[in-house]
Amino acid sequence: MPDRLSALDASLLYMEDRSTPMHVGGVAVFERPDVGFDFELMCKLINHRLGYLPRYRQRVMRVPGHLARPVWADDVDFDLNYHVRRSALPAPGTDDQLFELVARLLARPLDQGRPLWEAYFVEGLAGDRVALVTKTHQALVDGIGTIELGQLILDPAPGELDPVDDEMWLPGKTPSKAELMFDAVAETVQQPTMLVESAKAAAGDAAATAVKLADAVGGVASAMRAALKPAPSSPLNVEVSGGRVFAGVRTTLDDYRQIRATHGGTVNDIVLAAITGALREWLLSRKVPLDQTSTVRALVPLAVADASTRSYSSAGIVGNEVAAYLVDLPVGETDPVMRLQHISHAMASHVDSGRSVAAQTLLRVGGFAPPTLHSLGARTAGTFSNRIFNVIVTNSPGPQIPMFAAHAKMVEMFPIMPLVRNHALAIGVTSYYGGVYFGLNGDRKAVSDIDVIAAMVHESLAELKGTTR
How far apart are CA 446 and CA 453, in angstroms? Predict the structure, then answer.
């Protein structure tokens, strides 16, 4: 039987256009070790790890006439040098130069005729650092059989490459168009509902969206209210262009712990409060009128546990177990502590549901899980109507020990969330090794001043920290 894409994976491919490419990614920055760390070694590392995840050497093949969902097939022309590319900044490269390069790389859709991922090894950063910029299509990362590339290459200790079983990978035969059609017809005869399912995947299944909306807002009644009351009008919700801007924000985990010790809540609550304050100042800079009741509705995906098994393995947490919640961020509130308390109260109802996974639990997941969890959050957001939220915010805690690619220590990681249709800003947050890192991905026309939002995240956090003295 062919390895057919799931209905969700297929829909992520069908929804993509040139203005809203559906890939996720990250910017990992490494210290160059004394033993060396160059493009050739990175290629060797990635090629070595691909043996664990065959999907990264497969491409999507569409069935003629859309008789069935597309299938995964080995890429007989797989070329690692096409997927792993070398770039450089004029030394000593600055953060602004790196983020501008990232923005341009983000804007380019992946080639759907090849395996759906790319990586860029960026040299020339100040301080003898290098960066790895990854792009992986959401259809590729399901959290069970396939994880995100940023998780694939990292280990908790420096070292040489471990042996793998398939150093000599041999691709399978590429199915012909006739074989694709024959398999589709045969499956349709055996499963008549498959043809209807394929059509729904291409067009978007409103019923499935309604179910997810019900989960997100806490029940059918709330779902009806949310559907009748769309997200507030906002300059964040405009037609998206093909250009991108990107900004990274560095903060320290100790600041969040200090604020939590005084005001309670969780680190995630404080992250959302810092974003709320930043968006408030950005809206005011745009002369957007705000009153005490003004809000920005965030879609906040959270990892959840399997209710039947309470499994906390990588697959048990990650595999299709990311639920998205709607949270109204109180941008009209002038008091930073009141903003935090409002968010803590809103988020507590989701935690009290008993399914949300605590940060300490996520930290027990093997490897560097945040890139995969951000990918699953993006997949979840892609199934919602873009009328019910203004911005997506994903936050995934990472390990508080250093991670390594071969012998190179990763010093920071900025997640990259994709923009969905009519949404000009997406925010990813990852905590790692004492730091909390924000990745702000914006539309180049609508959020050209993304550096203002980035600066205001710092200001908003400092304002909260000032209330602890």
Answer: 13
